Amino acid sequence: MEERAGARRRSRSPPMALLLLLLLSACSSAASGAPVLGEDYVRPPPAPRRCGVHRKALLSLFPWSKKKASSSASDPQQVHISLAGAKHMRVTFITDDNSVPSVVDYGTEAGTYTSTSQGESTSYSYLMYSSGKIHHVVIGPLNDNTVYYYQCGGHGPEFQFKTPPSQFPLSLAVVGDLGQTSWTTSTLNHIKQCEHDMLLLPGDLSYADYMQHLWDSFGTLVEPLASTRPWMVTEGNHEKENILFFKSGFQSYNARWKMPYEESGSTSNLYYSFEVAGVHAIMLGSYTDYDESSDQYAWLKADLAKIDRKRTPWVIILLHAPWYNSNWAHQGEGDSMMAAMEPLLYAAHVDIVIAGHVHAYERAKRVYKGGIDPCGAVHITIGDGGNREGLAHRYRNPKPTWSVFREASFGHGELKIVNATHAHWTWHRNDDEEPVRTDDAWINSLAGSGCIQDGSHEYRKILMSP
């Protein structure tokens, strides 16, 4: 049966289909205005030698050909978890065998499962590719800050995860534009070294770009981390994968990475919110309608108006295209979204806005309407997880007054919410095998500031108006 399953998987990507997918990927990049290597982007410098070994710049072009030696068609693959409402977790996994049930057995002791949850499944076809059976199972209610052991589909290995705490401190790992390169591997290894309760990713996950098997290889690559801590993601431009008159956008992303949008009152998987340990987090969609007449704008306005800063003193936003960016790459691409939505964020006293897209790191002061404002949000760009397109080295000079620190290197961020008033942000640059902390800052929540006390009445009117 395993041989037949392998044959089925191989038949999903005939050589002619691969050529077609590669051509579509190239055409999409050109049509979307993606920067060309040598213009806004340059490739990263060669990694330094260590112990006589020089790391490859990229992983294999065909990483999906390397399946786990012990896997069978019934074994769960690409396991990852995400929050699914208060005290619940969504477990996502894929099987080649369509007869595997969408169930997860779980408990607080290894090998002993005291609860079982049944979920739903989906699949999709994309040109010559057919996905496996994609299972989404919500489990719970779960205890906070507790290790759970679980098995997917009643078959295969045991996994484990730890639920986030219900109160401070809360540790968040942050990475954008991840991809599947050797730099990605370094970034993931560095994140594994840090104690974190959850990972946040503001778009551009797999860089599959129409080659659907790269979604499979990405799922396998991140499984060791994504199966142990919840990954909360939003879409980037590389998740679009739309083909004019033939395929609508985000089909693969929506099928594989289902987020708790329904639980937050959203009607789209491309934007949603969640709460955890005193933090209200909002994931926005840079590539779906966001003007004042859009569903996303109406949903955001309503979501912000419902926030209770006594229960969640911290409000953070994640989106893909940055609003404040002094790099020449993707300059101005977030301006129209900022013009529409920044007044809402300012009215709600959002603390931090984290973006990706630009393949470099930058941290700004609190800003609003293009200038420094003590009641604005701290903006951070962190689209440097390890993508295959290289780094964006060219910055605009002189540096804007709102820009505090900027550097074109691969790396990841860590946000530790210490208590209701203070959070510690650090950015860690990849330096061969070791992460190097290059930037850090203490951030004070606006919940306890004069911004809310002095301006709450005036700006709440913006949120409450029809």
TrEMBL record:
Protein's organism: Oryza brachyantha (malo sina)
Pfam families assigned to the protein according to its UniProt record, in alphabetical order: Metallophos, Metallophos_C, Pur_ac_phosph_N
Protein's name according to its UniProt entry: Purple acid phosphatase
The enzyme's E.C. designation: 3.1.3.2
Signal sequence segment: 1-33
Gene coding for it: LOC102717138
Catalytic activity: a phosphate monoester + H2O = an alcohol + phosphate
Calcineurin-like phosphoesterase domain ranges (all copies): 172-361
Cited CDD domains: MPP_PAPs (cd00839)
Domain of life of the organism encoding this protein: Eukaryota
Gene Ontology molecular-function annotations: acid phosphatase activity; metal ion binding
Keyword Glycoprotein assigned: yes
Similarity field: Belongs to the metallophosphoesterase superfamily. Purple acid phosphatase family.
Glycoprotein is among the record's keywords: yes
Start and end residues of each Purple acid phosphatase C-terminal domain: 377-433
Enzyme class: hydrolase
PANTHER family for this protein: ACID PHOSPHATASE RELATED, PURPLE ACID PHOSPHATASE 18
Keywords: Glycoprotein, Hydrolase, Signal
InterPro entries: Calcineurin-like_PHP, Metallo-depent_PP-like, MPP_PAP, PAPs-like, PAPs_C, PAPs_N, Purple_acid_Pase-like_N
The Purple acid phosphatase N-terminal domain, residue ranges: 76-163
